[in-house]
Amino acid sequence: MLYLSKLLFKIPSLDYALVGRWIGHFKQGVFAHKNIVHAEKITGERALGWMAHYLIGISFALLLLLICGLDWLYQPTFLVCIIVGVATTAAPWFMMQPAFGFGIAASKTFKPVTARLRSLQAHAIYGFGLYITALLLNKLIL
Prior knowledge:
Elements: H1 2-9, H2 16-24, H3 45-68, H4 78-87, H5 90-100, H6 112-140
């Protein structure tokens, strides 16, 4: 989905090394930074960031199933997926971006409105991916 958004919408991907750097600093008890870009790099931060990204995405998908129930997979609905996708924007806006030193909803960045729209767009695409995945599971497995 990230490749699709980059290709179709010209949205550059987040540098997931920053996510890995953030998580990598947890073991030193550092959970927030003035600016994560200037924080000490962590060995393997890019791989750690990508792994965390996928595990978080899978966790949100499982949360969707917990809320809607497994029966939802027999008749997945687009609206539910888009709502879940957009709702997941709360994680970067209110947790990650402030912890990175970027402010709530990227308020301290050079172009906060652009950053917010990119987050919304990326998470809506994630919601679309949830829907496509549910349809494929429905046809191939169920």
